[in-house]
From TrEMBL:
GO terms for biological process: DNA integration. GO terms for molecular function: nucleic acid binding. Residues 11-92 form the HTH IS408-type domain. It holds the Pfam family Mu-transpos_C_2. Coiled coil: none annotated. Residues 138-320 form the Integrase catalytic domain. This is Transposase. It comes from the Bacteria. Belongs to the transposase IS21/IS408/IS1162 family.
Amino acid sequence: MPAHRTTMRRIKEVLRLKWACNLTHRQVQGALGVGLATITQYLQLATAAGLDWATVEPLEEDELERRVLSPASPPAPAKRIEPDCTLIHRELRRKGVTLQLLWEEYVALHPGQRTYRYTQFCQRYKDWAQTLKRSMRQQHRAGEKLFADFAGQTMPVLSRDGGVDFQAHIFVAVLGASNYTYACAMPSETTPDWIGGLIEAMEFCGGVPELLVPDNPRALIAKPDRYEPGLGRTTQDFVNHYATAMLPARPRKPQDKAKVEVGVQIVERWILARLRNHRFFSLAELNRAIGRLITDLNQRPFRKLEGNRREWFERLDQPALRALPARRYEIATFQKCRVNIDYHVEVDHHYYSVPHSLVRQEVYARVTRHGVEILHSGKRVAAHARSRLKGKHTTVPEHMPAAHRAHMEWTPGRLLNWGASIGPGAEAIVNHLLTNRPHPEMGYRACLGLLGLARKYGKDRLEAACQRALVIGSPTRRSVLSILESGLDRQPALPLQLTEWHSPEHENVRGPDYYH
């Protein structure tokens, strides 16, 4: 079965995590679920094309594909001979055997073939050895990881009549190097609660870590696979906003987030236990109480180390954290839409316009509390203020075809002003056409046809023809056109008061008495 082709959106994310976030190949693999060989291949292609992150970031997906996957790109080099890590692991137990000796034997065993240099040889063995099932003490670099999870214990929030209104869920986050801890209460464990907790934790720390390591909930992870987890679109949008990466823990593998597992235990024992006899009537009230105790917890001295969490945070993690973005992330949901023939997409039963060239194409609607953005091929093509009116339309004139836009610009007032610029006769007929229809728009075409006669016959002749049409009591475009074609507008003007007309005497004329 052929392998699925890696999308350009994922390739661009690989380049961002490597060049902008300075992650290792293994970390990128864990965050995106992309193979190490694929990561290496596309980094080599992008480097060979002379690209860097500053060049790649503004590129659209099709342009990035053209520049990275162009036919002129050099073919990928032949694969190197992989060392037998099992044999290496076994041989290293023998006295006097070193990695240097095993590397020399590995090269000698494959003459004329591509083999790894000594440094790469050692690194591949170390990477393999770390996959063995064993207990090991994890070492965390400053500012590298923020671990997050929800505590199993909840706190009741009471209603004013004394009953339980709802159970608040406790969000906990811990920085890896300093164990600096944050906790807050959330109404549930949905996507906005997870992302909101992570945002507040980063704002509490005053910076952004290199990696976010949450549990593996459906609220964040669209594909909760043990080996290749896939982030949801909202989660990926949040991660991109803060220029960081997310590496969720494996399902049922608490050792992947041991720091926050211990942090949850400490929060339950040192904070929630102290609040067990308190009564809270709102989430804000509960969070104020938790905030005071979190401050005390971070200033409590360590038992076996010098200082406390606050001091270690200020010395280790705080200088290494990246700055927060200028604006806070606003929770967004994504909806796949197909552009209708009227160049509008439906979002929550309201219709928003997009450029008419995208008719029948698939787009994504990024919906926030106050706005709706339309994305096509990773690029924003439209933005609207969000409307709650069902069945209504929000239309930007620039999205319409030229003919539709011109029609929309016509109003009764504009047509009357144009008629007045020709003369009072033309204005009177335009007014008649607009007011003697069930709706003014029904007379738009007739008015445009009437006023368009000025291009062929001139304004003076059109005004004279309109005056004659009014006198004979036929204020229609057809009458005006007939007068112009027959040249009656050039004859002397008719008197405004016409004499009464009498039929001639003739045997074929029945007369009024015939109908009595």
